[in-house]
Structure formats: structure tokens, C-alpha cells
Amino acid sequence: MALIYIAAFVYFGAFFDYPSQGTQEERLRFLDENQLAVSIAYGSIYILFGALLAVMVAGLHDLLSPYGPAASLTSLLGAVWVGLVMASGMIYVTGLQHVVGLLPDSSEAAFHLWRVVSMLGDSLGGGNELVGGLWVAGVSLLGLKYGVLPRALNSLGCLVGAFGLATTIPLDVFTDMFGLSQIVWFLWLGLSLLRMREA
User: Fold this and answer.
1) Percent of the chain residues topping a pLDDT of 70
2) What transmembrane ranges does the database entry give (predicted)?
3) Which residues contact 9 (CB under 8 A, 6 or more apart)?
4) What is the pTM of this model?
5) Rounded to a whole number, what is the distance in angstroms from the first to the last CA of the chain?
6) Alpha-helix residue ranges (DSSP H) falling in the chain
7) Cα dist. 88→12, 47, 48, 79 in Å?
8) pLDDT for 3-53, tens place per residue?
């Protein structure tokens, strides 16, 4: 999951040359010419990530389930996040297919459809990380209270969760900070779980 985040930052930072300030025709031409690459990117970042997240949520549920209703609520938030992330990816991939298919008939309709697709996808899983932030914060607070996982890792998780909650404020910096800090959290959490299994 951390590698998917890193790949997303690299792809969209260095290779995704979408003309966001270009004309309507330039943006539609880019989507038409790069449909496969864009579909693979969105499918990996959202759908594949969501499938792996489901495994993680289930594993952490087993770890935290002895600690009462708060653990069940945290796992429920994780499951909701899985659904939102995967739905976002499916909207992007399927929506892009419909946009490209609509182009020969009406570029105006295709452009408006892409705006709707982008708004829906971004609202569910790209630009608003409220549910993900609540889940990470819940896992971390339970970890701190009951001594599950390293204390420093749980403290980092509380910070990651705070960044997720802050994405409800319309500033891109919080979304970036959520993603970057969660890369470290995912890696650290994975190593900690492996050490627990080997102990």
C-alpha cells in the first residue's frame, strides 16, 4: 500500500501531463490518447489499494477486537473507507470509458461528463480523506490506550488521522500531508505486524 502511494506521487508528479490549464479540446484529447495509462493508474491507486486495504482492516480488526465496541466502530470506519476508495476508482475508470466513447458525438457533453466524474471520484476517495483519517486515528488511539503496537507508531497514526480530518478544509496541503505521512505509517505498521507474528 505504501508502494502504491509512492507510485502515485511519482506518476502524477512526474509523468501525468494532464493540461489542467489547457482548453477543453486539449484536455479531452489527452484523455482520449492516454485512456489506457490513466485507467491503469486510477485502477491501481484506488481499486487495488482498496482491495489491499480490506485485508489490512480485517487483520487489524482481529488484533483490536478484544478491546470492545470502540474497536468494532473503528473496523466499521475502515470497511466504509474501503468501499469509498474502491467506488472512487470504479467511477474514474468507468467514467473515463464513457467520456472517451462520447467524444465522437459531442465533445461538449464529454467534457461536462468528465467534470462530473472527477467531482464524484474526488469527493469519495481523492480529495476528502475524512473517513480514512478517522480510521487511522481510531486504530492509533486504541493502540495507545491498550498498549497495542509501538507507542511512537500510534502517536504518528494520531498525526496521520489529524491530517485526514483536516482534508475537509479546502487546502491541498492537507491531502498531500495525509498521503506522505501515511506512507511512513503503512511501512512502520507492516514491519511491526511482521515482528509480532515472528515473536
Assistant:
1) 99
2) 40-61, 73-93, 153-171, 177-194
3) 179, 180
4) 0.91
5) 24
6) 2-10, 24-33, 35-42, 49-64, 69-102, 107-121, 130-146, 151-166, 172-198
7) 17, 8, 12, 14
8) 998 998 888 877 778 887 888 888 999 999 999 999 999 999 999 999 999
